[in-house]
Amino acid sequence: MSHINIEFKAKCPNSKKHEEIRHYLEMKGAEFKGIDHQRDIYFKVRKGRLKLRRGNIESSLIYYERENIKDPKSSNIILYHVDKSSQDTLEKLLLKIFDVLVVVEKKRAIYFLENVKFHIDSVNNLGLFIEVEAIDIDGSLGVEKIREQCDQYLELFNIDPSNLIKVSYSDLLLAKDSINLHE
Predict the structure, then answer these.
(1) Which domains, and CATH codes, for the chain?
(2) What is the pLDDT of residues 34-45, one digit of tens each?
(3) Distance CA 104, CA 126 (A)
(4) What's the pTM value of the predicted model, to 2 decimals?
(5) Quick one: three-class SS letters along 102-130?
């Protein structure tokens, strides 16, 4: 399945911000999908990003291309849902073909309000984050509409622009590892 989304990711200064967002979503009747313990294996590829997500709720092979900018950004995504019974086999196959770039481990609370997906994340070795994805699965909403949705939540959640993250968790971990190697 291929689709477009507009998203933002922001560092949360503390767990209070997580609770404020969770409370808002619950008050609005957001559908809570659960807490997913995810392991994202990023592979070295010549273009874009390729990751195998292994989770108890979401299991997918995901390829995406996205600009590294702080503001809400567009992603072109190809998503292949992986049956849990075939995760091990797919991981073995991918490990034979590609080198691993980095592995991201996180605990993620997943909520949905209509076409907007909310991730309240605790990422190993990085900290607390909020991620909002306005998703247009079939092209019926349009980029302008989903960008407006993202901007609305950015303002509603009172996200400090200095907390916006322009890269993926994988990039943050790689940068952190690079700093640690040079200390």
Answers:
(1) 2-181 (2.40.320.10)
(2) 999 999 999 999
(3) 10
(4) 0.89
(5) EEEEEEEEEEEECCEEEEEEEECCCEEEE
